[in-house]
Each structure stands twice: as C-alpha cells, then as structure tokens.
Structure prediction request, 1073 residues.
Amino acid sequence: MKTLKKLFALLLTLAMVACLFVGCAGDTPATDNTPATNTPATDAPATESGTDDVEPIKIGVLVADVSGEEALAFRSYYENYIASNYNVTFSYTEQLEDAAAEKSAIEKFAAQGCQAILSFSSADRATQLDTCIANGLYYAVASGMLDDAQFETYKGSEYFVGQIGPSMDTEYEAGYAMGKYFADKGVKTVAMYGAFIPNPMHVYRAAGVLAGLGMTYGGASEKDAIVGQIFGDQGIDPSKVGANGVELIGYFQGFGDTTFDELFAMLGQGPDAFLSVGMATTFFTDALNGAGVEFSDIDSFTSANGEAMANGKLVYLAGKYSSSIGPIFAAVVNAVNGHPVRDAEGNALSISQDYLVATDADSFAQYSTTDQGDSPIFSKEVLDTVIGENVSYDDFAALVSADRS
Amino acid sequence: MIKRQSIGTKLIGTLAIPAAFAAILFGLCAAEGKTMFATPISVNYFVLYAAIVMITTMALSINLNSGRFDFSLGAMAVLSSVLSAKITYALLQGGSGSAVVMLLLGVVIGAVLGLLSGLLYVGLRIPPIITSLGVTLIYEGVTFTVTSGKYVNTEVRNASMSAFSGTWIWPALVILVVLALIWFIFDRTKFGYDYKALQNGQKVAVNTGIREVPNALVCYVICGALMGIVGFLSATRSSTINGGSLNFGSIGIMFTAFLPMFIGGYIGRFSNDKLGYLIAALCMSLLNSTFAVFSNQISASMQSIINALLLVIFLIYLSNEGLLKKLFQRKQSASCGER
Amino acid sequence: MAQSELVKKHRVRELLVALLPIAALAVLFGALCLVVNIKGYRLDMYLKIVFNEGVVLAIVATGAIFIYSLGSFDISLGASTLFSATIGVMVYNASGSLPLMILTIFGVAIGCSLLSSVLASVFHIPVFVTTVAMMSVLSAVAAQIITTNGGALGGIGIPATVVAPLDNVPFKLIALAAFALLCVFVFDFTKIGRRLKFLGSNAVCAKLSGIKVNVYAIIAFVMAGLGVGLGAFLTLVYTPSVTPTTAGSIGMNILVAIVFGGMPISGGSRSRIYAALVGGFSYILLNNILKIVIDSGAGYGISQIVSAVFFLAVVYVTSMNYRTKLLPR
Prediction:
C-alpha cells in the first residue's frame, strides 16, 4: 500500500513534469513576436501616450540592482517620463542574481509579448544576446558595454541594437581624471577605496585613479598592464604602488565586518584626500565628513550627494544623470519600428558615453537641476531628433557626445 | 560524583583561549611591524564589534541550545533597526537623544518580532527551523516593502548616532548590561531554571509541570530583543542599513556566531557560558581587527576560509577531546612503563 | 468494529494529508495556467521556463533527501553546485573535452560531499556546522577562481555551442527521471534506504541493531553529491557560464522545497524521495504565479511575504500526521 502510494506520487509528479514538456513540445524558438511577423508599433513613434490606437511597444528591462539611487532614477525616467511621452510600456525584472536568472527573465519577457530587451544586468551578456536572438527579441545594452570580443561576435546580428554607455576605456578615463584632479590640487597623501574590485568597472576606474595620481603599479604605467595586474591581484596591493609625488597611504575594498576598521585606520593617518571608485557616498559620507577628509566618488547626481558637496567634504563627483539612458531607448524604438541604426558596415551601435563631473555645489546643482523629472536632458524633443526613418549612426554619435552641461 | 575544578583549572580553562588568540594575533602584527589598534577609533570599533558578536551569539544560543534552530535572527535585527530608525527619525528628525530612543525602540520592536515568531512556532507546532524559514522570508519582505529595497541612510546619520559609535564606553556599557541581564534571567530566576530543565530533558520537564509554551515564548522574546540591540549597534557601526535583502539574504549574520558560540560553550565549562560568549566575542573581534590590519594581504574570500577552518578545527578538537585525552594518557603510561 | 472504522478513518486522513503536497502542486499548476492565460502570455513558453527554473532545484533537492532522511541538513549544496560547475568550466577550457568536464563535475561534487561526510562522521562534527563551513570555503574558493580568470567579463564560461544541443526539455526530463528513479530504487527498494530512515527515526536503536552509522552517512552524502553533480552540469547546460552568484539560492531553497513537498525536517520513516520533486516545482510555480500577479517593483517584498505565508500554510497542514504534544524541536 505504502509503496504503491509512493510510486503513484512519483508517477503523478513525473506526469505533471511531462505535461510541461508536452506543453512546450510544439514551440519553436522564434515566437509570435519575431521581427518578421511584427507589425511596426507605429511609424511615428513620437506620439503622446493614450492617443494611439496601435499597440504600444513592449520593452523588457533586465536589472541587477533594484534599490540603488541611480537604478531608481533610471527607472523613474523610463516609467514616468518616457512612458508618458511615447507609446511604450516597460516591464522590469526583480533583482537578477546570475546568468540563469537573466536568461529566464528574457524568456518570460518573450512569453509576455515584449519586442525588445534593455539590459542593465551583466552576469552573462553573451547568453542574454543568444537568448534574445533565439526568441526574436531586439537587445540593447543600457549600462556599460560588451567586452570587445563579444561585440565582434554579435555586432552583425540583426537583433543586437547596440550599446550606449561608459565603455571600460571611459571608466579608466573617469578614474584618471579623478586622480589627476587631486594630483593637480597638490595633495601629498591619499587613501583609496576600490569598491567591489574585481568588478571590472571598478578595476578600470581604480587603474585610472592610480595613473591619474602619477603612480605606477607593479612598475607599469600603461592601462592594460595595470588593469591586468589588478585582476590578477584581486585588488590593489599597496606594496606594488610606485609613488610619484603623491603617496598612497592606505587602500581597502569591499564591504564587510572589517570595512570600518580599515577606513578608520586609514583616516587615522590623516590623508589629504580619500578617493573612491564607487559606493563611498553610500557607505562613508558620514565618517569622511566627520573626519574632515576631502573625498571623491563615481556615483550619480542624487540629493544626498548634493548635500555632501554643499555642506560636507565631497569635492569631486563623476556621475551619470538619470536621462543618460534616453538615446539607447531611441535606438530600440527605431529597431522595433523597422529602422535599425547601423554603422557603415551594417554593425550595431557602439557609442561610449562620458561621465559628467561636478567639483562644487554650483556645478552639481547645474547637472541635477537640468535633469529633473519633467525636463530631462534627453527630453522628448531631443530624442525625437534621432527617432525615425532617416537617422544615421553619426546622428546618434553626435547626440550622445554633445556637451550636456 | 562531579569532580570540582580548582581555581587554577578554572582560570586556565577560562583564559587559555583568549590568551592564545591575543598572543598569536598581536604577535603576528608585531612580526609584520603593524599595530592592531592604531587609533582610538580602532578601539571603539573593536568594542562595538565585540558587542555585536556577543549579543548575536547569545541570541543564537538561547534557542539553539534548546534544539530550536532560528534562521530569522538576521531578519529580525534588520527589520527592528529599520522600523526603530524610521520612527525615531519621525519623532526627533535626527536631533539629540536619537541614539537612545532608537536603541530602546529597537529592543521593544525586536521583542515584538521575537514574540510573533514564537507565537507562530507554538501556534503551528511545526519544527522551529521551518517556522524560522517562513519568518525570515516574511520579515525580509516587510523590510523590503518598508524601505523600497533602499539603504536607510538619513535616518541613522546624525550627531547622536555618531556620538554613540565615537566612544568605546557606550558599547562597553551595552555589553555589561546585556551580560548582567542575561546572566540574571537564565541563571538566577525560575524561568532560567525551567529553561535549563527543558533544555536537558524536555519530556521529563513537561511531566514535572514546567510550562513549556510560555518558556519558549519568553526565549523568543529575549532573542528578538537581543537582535533589536544588534540591529541598532550594526546601524551605528556602518551608519547605514541595507533594506534590500530578500531570499534569505539576511541569514549571514547567524553564521558569524557559530564559532564564538562553541568557544563560549567550551569556556563556560570552566566559568560561566555567558562570560564565555563575551570572551569568545572579544577573540572574534581581535581576529576581525587583525584582518583589518592585514586587509591588503588577506582578501575577504581568504577571511571566510580562515573563519571556516577555525570553526572546523575547533569543533574537531571539541568533538574528539575525550579521544585525544585518552590517546595522550595512553602515550604517557606507555612512556612510564618503558621507564 | 467501531475501532476498525476509526483506524480506517485515520488512515484515510493520513493518506489525504500525505497527498496534499501533490494536490498543492496540481492547484499551483492550474493557477499558473490560469493567470498566464488571463494575462494573455504564451503558456507553452511559461511552462518551459518553469521547468527550466525548477529542474536543477528538484534534482539537487532529490539527492539531498538522503541526507535529510538522517535528520541532518546540508546548506552547502548550492556552494557545491557552484564549485563543481566552476571546476568543470576550468577543466573544459584546459582540455576542450566535454566528457572530461562532465566527469570532473561529478567527481568534484561527490568529493565535496565526501569531505563533508568525513568531517561529520569521522570527526563527529555536527553535520549542519560542517556544511556551514563547507559553504563558506567552497563559495570563497569558487569566487576566487572565477574572478581571477574571468577578468573584464566578471565570469568564466565554456562556448555555448558545446552544451547548446542539450539545452532542451526532453534531455533534462530524461536526466530528471533517470535520477529520480535511481533515488527511488536506492531509497525505497534497497536496504540502504530502509537503514537511512531507521537511522533518522532512532539513531540509538539503529546503532544498537548493528547499523554502521558512518557507512550510511557517507552513502547518503555520495547520493547527494550525485545530485549536485547533475545539477551543476544542467546549470551549465542552461547557461554556459558561472559567476560567483551562480546557484546562490539553491542551498536554502532545497530546505524549503523538501518541506514544501511534505517531508518532515526530522527525516526518518516519513522521508520521501518525491517530496523534493513535488516541493521544488511547487515552490517555483508559486513564485512565478506571484510575480505575474504582483507585477511591480514594490511587489518584490509583498510577493515574498505571500510566498512565505503559503509555504507555512502548506507545511502546517502536511505536518498534521506527525504533530506531537510537546513542542517540536
């Protein structure tokens, strides 16, 4: 009796699982929403929401961060500003932890009838692209960029719309500019926070900071050599840093039980400045203001950072603004509407986007107020100039590289 | 017949581990020409971390010693600190007295969260490890909903909170008060005697008339209150609270308490287990300060590995102590025989 | 007569309660179909997604039943999955051989399990504490390997084409069925299963009956290692890359899945292999339903609360058969 019950239960479970299999047996990778069968959502996408009788463009958004200030500002720009000015709907994922979650999310978006994917998640971009291609979804990188080899592999795919964001070179340059700012200021001793190295973005920024301060690392002063060594060391080993006028008196990274011990040990040595390649404004603003040490970070133009710059010791902030993700949205709309923007060889867009830098309360206020909710830097009027049939790669490049300050 | 320990044995048993920890860790620092406590702030953070570890260890051990596994300790600490920080900020806008109000609110809210967890356990009568899984998910969900998943910063960044973490005296005071209270409650009250009876023989204790349900509920309330204090101390230490932990992201704090719990239990054989938890917490804080000194040589991954290895090695010793003693005695008698 | 009727009634109630997790699975399956249809989504695709999300959890949890039947639990299985997959990727990238990669994955997974069992049974360390330590060590070492070798990509992987032909439902279904049948055979039709359940029910009696605890603990861990190996391989089949967060949620989800499937956490004679399958897929179905119904950013926390309440409700009802007068521990 008992054995029968067990067997019955097992068979029932397997039968139900088999139902899943039967349910999918007939499906083919290409779904109803392949571009070939898509009716362009509208030929004139720059229409007011709610006034269209055509189906809105459905875009799925992959996010690895659902709670950071920058992530929330990006989301607000898409869901509030863009969605109310264009005939488009955005569906967001929950916090994606790994490549399997990314792939599963894309498949769910395909099942929900989305036509394109905008990705802010980077666990495995190659698999993201493969999954989009298999499901006939357009794919665009909204934050960061593909690795060079990956870009070479996918740049010719009709489903790869492109990438607009800070490239790894841009991250290096952002770090370099920060380091140089303090070197030019004449600081003699600095402490440094490497955020979440070996996160590649933070590795490149940290390498840039060292170079900007005029330091060598393991005897190297070239970008690739420094970056390679930081990856190998899984961090910065201060004993390998060669000083040149500015001395690195302490370095730490990550966030754990020892973080504040390390921070205060460094602050106890009285550095002239504290340079961070990310997250310092979230974790250490209070401590650094209290210690009276000038600090810098690469973050975003949030109100808390504005306060730290106006009344605290934050003296340098390289940041993104919330509407900086506008151009990649425009590129996706063009692709969905059947007017993909490609370069002369027919390849996907790949345009690096620089950070804006504030070094005082006035410049900070200028960037944050010019990118407010109803009047973002990439407003509807600006984006409409690159949405349509006759838009070229150069138009996008010009739009992205124009001085937005 | 129980063999009474001499004062010498007690002293050696109590102080051997901390003395060994201190000798090795200070020795390591000295050998590398480094100072463990370079600034007064290092001392403050050393005491603060010791307080966090000691109280978490006590909270873990209260239920675990009674066979009740509780995954929800971390979730209780985070939720109580988020709620107490938000209420305190709403009342005082970060003004003077914020730290004290947040601490008291944290204790009360933590106790209520512990009570809810306990009521679920005694009400559903399913194994505590399972209710704690559900409670963890619920408390994490509530925290995420209250904070929208964001870090809680403004509410915990004010002069009052900075003043608390700016000296070792306040955390030391918290340690003393908690230690005294827990000692009194568990070693000097009827509740404590009942707790020990239930711990050592649940069925017999219940048959003798000890009321198990109220005893368990009080244990959960105490655990919650202790984790409320931990939540507050963690908020003062890092001046932020991460409100975005979901899917058991909050359970990590519990794992840091295992090693001190076993060390504390061992020391307790020679003195008192609560004192053992304090001494073990001081050892862990020394280790943490050493990791901070060597942070450029010992990565976070390596720290995890070292902590895990210490736990395994100590447990191997603890679990095979009798066997080792026998082996040692056999060797001694063999060498005597040879002579 | 009246007594036999009472016994009969009791048996019917026991059977109904025992079948409840399966009924819950069926209800959740129906609910998913319903909400997907109401929303106008593609049901065939959703079913495939749910299967892909659940299959690794179900397989690893099925292997874990052997450990859980002893009344122990292991939270390092997620880290073992990550570690095995990581070493597998490294071996493939060094050798270019898929069979060698598969062998390595299984070898490493079983090796990790054996190490846990040796620490637990030979050195007499509590199993749970052993697995906490193993979890820390394995995830730290895997993270170190991945980040050192991953460079700017942040992860390591094998070429997608190597495993792409296997990324389909029939292959995974066969793998799941084969492993489940193997486990059912070992657990329900050999003395190994009977003795494991005996050990879980009453370790003292089992020892006095001459059962070698260490031998059976090692067998239990080896079976769990097999599940981890297969799970790690199928993880790579689905996404041919690993990052430090790969399989991060599996460790705790196994615990939830097994309990959700109606098995008591204390193990023993009520241990059932199908509990992992039923519970694993039920949990994944429930989460997907909630994500479809509560479709907003603020809803992440709320959907987790609803999921937890549903979990507790199912466990409450399924535990009716083994409720005691004393508070359970």
Summary: Chain C touches chain B through 49 residues (CB under 8 Å). Chain C has a mean pLDDT of 89. Chain C has one domain: 20-322.
